[in-house]
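User: structure tokens for this one?
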Amino acid sequence: MPLYAIICKDKPGALDTRLATRPTHLDYLNTSKNLKLAGALLDDAGSPIGSIIVVEAEDKAAAQAQADNDPFTVAGVFESVEVHPWRLAIGSV
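Assistant:
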């Protein structure tokens, strides 16, 4: 199955919502069987400003559904969400 990168950027002022929703978001990711890796995008001070998630999915629509159902998306944390086919060049997932 192909890999997809989900690149999310937080809305300005969304940190409190992000922190409040984080446990539910992590539960969602931990139970996602197609998840390959995930982590927060950080600003220069080390504060979260978004997320990068890589999933294995049948197609782009399935990867988009993963993004759409993420508790951060549902809670309105993200200003933008992009889903792109992704190819691993170096390393492993």
